[in-house]
Amino acid sequence: MNLKKFFNTPTHEPFRDKKAERNLFARRTLVAFLGILLLTGVLFTNIYQLQIVNFDTYQTRSNGNRIKLLPLPPTRGLIYDRYGKLLAENLTFFGLYIVPEKTENLDRTLDELRYIVGLTDNDIENFKKERRRGTRYTPILLKPNLTEEQISRFAVNGYQYPSLEVRPYFKRHYLYGETMAHILGYVGKMNDKDVERLKREDKFANYAGTNDIGKLGIERYYEDILQGTTGFEEVEINNRGKVIRTLRSRPAVAGKSIHLTIDLALQRYITELLSGLKGAVVVLDPKDSSVLAMVSTPSYDNNLFVDGISSEDYKRLLNDLARPLYSRATQGAYPPASTVKPFIAVAAQTENVITPNTTIFDPGYWVLPNSTKTFS
Fold it and tell me: Kindly report the CA angle at 82 between 78 and 87, in degrees rounded to 5?
């Protein structure tokens, strides 16, 4: 076999139409170019929509994420007696505030804070109630009345919780507790009924940044005067919810202070006289009928209600047979006794039954006609 001849046999290649290939390549190139051109047009159209047509809309949304209005709660008005002695004041405390929407794994965070700042079940319950009533991305008071030790412990661990912050806040304090409780009443945490009423009266916006409202007594009756007007700060925040700078602000207007007609010294004196007894004493000024003292015993410490009274303390007050929450001076129903005698005398004189000089002998008892039974 001639191998040389075998290997030198020419190979027959298939026929190739190079012109057709060039046309095909050109068509594919044109389609690709048109596709790129179309996608580029879509891209620039969307950019135009975003940057030009919908600029104001997206700028507003962006500012909504970057710029926040923080409420500035007003300082509540003070309460004084007739001689200017302070009865109700505002003390500065420190509390731990949290932005729930910025908190990763909220439940785990709350559990860890039990060991860091002594967070209790009552604190968590109050926080959840306030969260349901509050607005999103607004700091909510989580732990009130922080001690110096708790503040220090959080300062050490705070870097782990960027959505939490220690802030000062004002808390109502009653200097004379049980002595003035039935007169002053107290402020307490807003409940759902309070929120519904404030919204109905178009006053809810003025309570942004505060949870307190007058619940009883003077605090409730003069709520609109004592509350003041809420201010605001427009601030720029970062992605962690921390304030970078203040853009503008409107300061809060403090509530007006009020002076009562009550004489604190007389109130305390009568309270001491009724110590250990159940009763009520009301003293009026004969010149203008203003109330100088109004005592009901036993009483209670209204400071217990300011931060939200514990269930144990509330049960104790409710189950007390002496009924300390009951104001015998304003809620009690009593027979008129001798207070009705001047009205009878005026009526008798008007009808000419007696004169200003008429005298009547009173042996200290009364006998029914045709009877031997006496009434003393």
Answer: 35
The CATH architecture of the domain made up of 69-259 is Alpha-Beta Complex (3.90)
Residues recognised as catalytic: 338
Domain ranges of the chain: 23-61, 69-259, 264-319, 338-375
Per-residue DSSP letter, 78: P
β 164-174/186-189 pair status: unpaired
Contacts of 32 (CB under 8 A, 6+ apart): none
Task: List, in sequence order, every residue forming a beta bridge with 253; answer none if it has no partner.
Answer: 229
Q: What are phi and psi of 232, to 5 degrees?
A: -155, 160
Of 73, 307, 263, give the one whose Cα is nearest residue 173.
307
Q: How far is CA 184 from CA 57, 78, 85, 260, 306, in A?
A: 50, 11, 14, 10, 12
> Which pLDDT tens digit goes with each residue over 113-140?
999 999 998 889 888 888 887 777 778 8
Closest-CA residue to 145 (of 283, 306, 327, 273): 306
216-243 pLDDT tens trace: 999 999 999 999 999 998 887 776 667 7
